Amino acid sequence: MNLIASPFESIEHAVIWLLIVFSVATWGLALLKGVQFTRLKNQDRRFHKQFWAASSLDSAAQLAHDHPGAAARVAQAGYAAIQVPDGAQATDLSQAINHQDRLERALRQQIVRERRSLETGLAILASIGSTSPFIGLFGTVWGIMSALKGISAAGSASLETVAGPIGAALVATGVGIAVAVPAVLVYNYFLRRLKLTAADLDDFAHDFYSLAQKNAFRVLLHPAHKKSAATATGQKVKEAS
After folding, report:
1. Domain encompassing residue 38
2. What value does the mean pLDDT take over residues 24-46?
């Protein structure tokens, strides 16, 4: 019977160790997401302060390329959609494009990309929070099966014989709940921060769209942008060759 009971005991312990790994992953993700959201908030605050202090939409173009952060990347996508090279004629093909539709699509796509980046790791937290109690319950059931086999082999059903093994088996359920509760709280906290950040990006995108509308959905291509665009084009040509 010992040979039969041994696998039950090892699986129960494996469940507890798995839950401990889940707990470490939860707090690790909480730390990483906390740093990510805090840094992003500070970056966006600095960018907004300088962006709204600019004299015009054209003069603020360089700020979007010099600053990191989600809001700056949304602005970069907007500028890329409506920028016009110096000396471009109305008959150029580049001017025949509907810049209004391009801007709206570019802003929307960039916000979606930012949301995807911020959502990284949240699915893991949700999975840990929803599955940990059941994994712990599985370990408890397995432990009770092992305890009942041991009691049957001992031929005694006294309180002292039953309480010890059953109590030890219930530890897995307790660990599962202890792992699940922080995971759910952390997930809900960062999900709310994600929604607030996405709402801020939506507001900024609307403001950027209104500014672009006043400029007839045209901004002049900054000389520094020309140089970077030419460099990027040269790199693409080299890679193609």
Report:
1. 2-240
2. 93
